[in-house]
Amino acid sequence: MKKNRFANCAPQGMPLHAIAKRLGDWRFVARRSSVTMRHAPLVHATRRWGTVFITICAFLFQFIGTPRAGAYVRDFTVPAAGGCPQPQHQNIAIGAPPLARQWSTSLPNINPSTILTVAPQGTAAQLDEIEATIQQTYAIWSDVSGTLVNANSYPNALGPLGRTSAQNACSNDLQTNIDGVNTICFNQNSAAFTTGVLSFTRVIVANAPAQTFGSAPPSVFVGQIIDADICFRNDGHATFATPGALATAPGAYDLESLLAHELGHVFGLDHSGVWRAIMFPFAPPPGTFFGDRPTVSAPDAPLSDDDRAGLRMLYPDPADTTDTGFISGRILPANPFALADFPATSLGEYVTGIFGAQVIAVDAATGSVAAATFGGWTCDAANPPPRFDGSYTLGPLSVGRSYVIYAEPFVGLVQPADMAGAAAGVCSAGALAPCTLPAINTNFAPRLGP
Ligand SMILES: [Zn+2]
């Protein structure tokens, strides 16, 4: 079966004083699966290059104490000066400058076009239609309650969506054009566009404060996303349709679904193992879209609760009194000798719990998935590096409700390779107090204790 899926690629090296980048590409791969597919598969790869330095985080929120795996799947950066991995996220905070964003009006000059719209090709109306799709897709995320991204509570969190006519407005394979502006580009060439790759997000992250890239303002904290650019290929190997054009373009990919997924990466999320999540690594097949379309009354409708939990985890609204619950624990094998073959992860430290389980919180009353995470480690700021003891934290969850927690291995549609990007940032060979990342453990069967 031919499928498209998202996947994570291994890190591409971590030079000190270099740049961390993440690529997520959509592509086709052939993979056999016995699972009934809800979505046809589209592959999204996530790739990372290096990162950079650190000192003390000028501001860094609650995870500076004891970061550990948390909902949903986030990426981490080990400070260049050593210490615990810090979650990657944009500098969205009260008092922070608005998120700088723009899109390039440079479109592929081929016939037929790769960007399908209701409006005629090459017209001002076409650009307006594409821009409206981008705005609506940003609104999917900025309507999530309980976050500093929320447009109603914090109308200045996101800056105005600018336009540029430059074809090269996005950071490129040469690691140039890093301008601190989160840009969407439709007219892109890249070595990352291997067979079947449709689009990707390149994320540049600081591993120290006061770090400068190009004309971007200096970084404020470790793990800060300096620049996240979304690139769509321009060679006619795939076509993308606005929601209005999709009905008459069954062979095109839904631009809104792709953008919503990629914007999740822009905000700092990695892939989720939850089928309903927009961050699930498998994209909808041509002619279809993820979840529900946004509406005026429910602009964030395409998202799942898992996506919402991820955004709240990254950008918690201090005024939120609803989504403030966390559930923590450890995933342990019934027989500890099952971990005996894992080598030491750092001097004198061994794997003492399941690393890389998907841990899921199900609302006990409704049966729906509230959040899930990639579990398995914790880090004591006073004594890094991370320990692989099976620790997880799920949240933020709605308080006053009951949840069933269970863990399962990534042995379904989502494979350990899809989670490689999320795992890779936990250890950094170049960092002080390094650790060696254990393999993602799939050798267990879920069973609730005792
Ligand atoms: Zn992705």
Q: Concise description?
A:
With 450 residues, the protein is of the alpha/beta class.
What features would you describe in this structure?
There is one protein chain. The protein folds into two domains: 2-87 and 317-427, no CATH class; 99-270 and 283-304, no CATH class. 11% of the residues lie in helices and 23% in strands. The chain contains five helices and 18 strands. The chain has helices spanning 124-142, 243-246, 255-267, 305-314, 420-424, and strands spanning 2-8, 22-30, 43-48, 76-77, 86-87, 99-104, 115-116, 158-164, 182-188, 199-205, 225-233, 240-241, 253-254, 323-330, 357-363, 369-375, 391-398, 403-408. The strands form six sheets. The protein has a five-stranded mixed sheet with strand order 8-6-9-11-10, with helices on one face. The site of zinc ion has 7 residues, from strand 3 and helix 3. Zinc ion binds at residues 6, 24, 44, 46, 261, 265, 271.
Strand content: 15-25%
Radius of gyration: 21 Å
Straight-line N-to-C gap: 41 Å
Number of helices: 5
Instruction: Give the uncertain stretches in residue-range form.
Output: 1-71
Give structural attributes.
about 450 residues; alpha/beta; 2 domains; five-stranded mixed β-sheet; three-stranded mixed β-sheet; 5 helices; 18 strands; about 25% strand; disordered N terminus; binds zinc ion
Give the secondary structure arrangement, pairings included:
Layout lengths: L1 E7 L13 E9 L12 E6 L27 E2 L8 E2 L11 E6 L10 E2 L7 H19 L15 E7 L17 E7 L10 E7 L19 E9 L6 E2 L1 H4 L6 E2 H13 L37 H10 L8 E8 L26 E7 L5 E7 L15 E8 L4 E6 L11 H5 L26
Parallel strand pairs: 1-3, 6-8, 6-9, 7-12, 9-11, 12-13
Antiparallel strand pairs: 1-2, 2-3, 4-5, 10-11, 14-17, 15-16, 15-18
The structure holds zinc ion (ZN).
